[in-house]
Amino acid sequence: DLYRKVFVFRKDPSDAYVLLRAKLEQPLQNFTVCLRSYTDLTRPHSLFSYATKAQDNEILLFKPKPSEYRLYVGGKFVTFRVPEGHGDWEHVCASWESATGIAEFWLNGKPWPRKGLQRGYMVGAEAAILLGQEQDAFGGGFDVYNSFSGELTDVYLWDAGLSPDKMRAAYQSLRLPPAVLAWKNLSYEVKGDVVVKPRLRE
């Protein structure tokens, strides 16, 4: 249980990452991924990387620059343009549904205009799920200049699209539905220079 704790990725650039273990029985037709990050990086960095043997960017939450987030599904991506942060925690949720190909992006509890991505696609179940690096091969192929440096917390993955109420609940750290990956019950392995510390502030 990592409640009120964070992963601190101490080095920049870094070869460190956290490997997450999820119990996924079948391919995903819908998903929601949420997390909170705190960084002063201005270079590109990966926040959440979900790779299969067939597709290294099966699900990827990536920040190419301070004013942009990218959501990849099955190797294709959409871009969400955001105001540059003010050196504060940023909470992001991204969800996608295969049937409509609709991608939703929420930043700090507010929805951005929805975009279309990979309608009819299926996200593979046999995945390597990493925080802090972007996979260019299954479980590896890192570029340190895409690595994350800073603090990450409140990481969740659901095999469903969350309702707007639940998206806001995730931002406010309220009660959430059972998840494939849940911060309060996380199976993980630290690889390299990552330290678990209490969260300093809200």
Automatic annotation (TrEMBL):
Required cofactor(s): Ca(2+)
Organism superkingdom: Eukaryota
Gene3D superfamilies per record: 2.60.120.200
Residue intervals of the Pentraxin (PTX) domain: 3-202
One of the record's GO cellular component terms: extracellular space
Bound cofactor: record note: Binds 2 calcium ions per subunit.
GO biological process: acute-phase response; innate immune response
Disulfide bond residue pairs: 34-93
Coiled coil residues, start to end: none
Family: Belongs to the pentraxin family.
Protein name per the record: Pentraxin family member
Organism: Aptenodytes patagonicus
